[in-house]
Each structure stands twice: as C-alpha cells, then as structure tokens.
Amino acid sequence: MSHGSSPAAWTAVLVCLLGITIGGLALIPDPNWTLFWVGVGITLLSGIIGRVMAAAGLGLDQPEL
Q1: How many CB atoms sit inside 10 A of residue 10's CB?
Q2: How do the domains of the chain map onto residue ranges?
Q3: Angle, vertex CA 19, rays to CA 15 and CA 51, nearest 5
C-alpha cells in the first residue's frame, strides 16, 4: 500500500511547509501581517498545486471502483 508518495504529494507538502514557515517567521518578534498572509496564501495554494499536478498525471493511479 502506498501512502501518497508521488511527485504531486511531495510538491504539495513542500510548498505547504514553505508557506507555514514563512507565516510563522512573520510573527517573530513583531508581527508582519503582510508577510503572514503571504504565507497563508502559499499554504492554501499548495492544495491547488497538488490537485493540478495529480490531474496532470503526477499523482498516484487510482483503482477503478
């Protein structure tokens, strides 16, 4: 059983981690709200990137039901 180990999944996770890191660092020591929201946007974009890459054939093959 594979646990989502595909280029689409790995890219989505790495982009999500980048967004969370940017958003978290934006809050230290004084909040930079613009940079924080950029991090939130990148984090949300990671889900879209993963779906688009999976639709392009870079995700796991789904068994037909």
Answers
A1: 14
A2: 7-58
A3: 40
Number of H helices, E strands in the chain: 2, 0
CA pair distance 32, 46, nearest whole angstrom = 22
CA distances from 65 to 3, 4, 8, 48, 57 (A): 19, 18, 22, 25, 19
What is the pLDDT confidence band of residue 59, given thresholds at 50, 70 and 90?
A: confident
SS3 for 36?
helix
Per-residue confidence band for 20, with pLDDT thresholds at 50, 70 and 90: very high
| Bond preceding residue 63 cis, omega within 30 of 0 | no
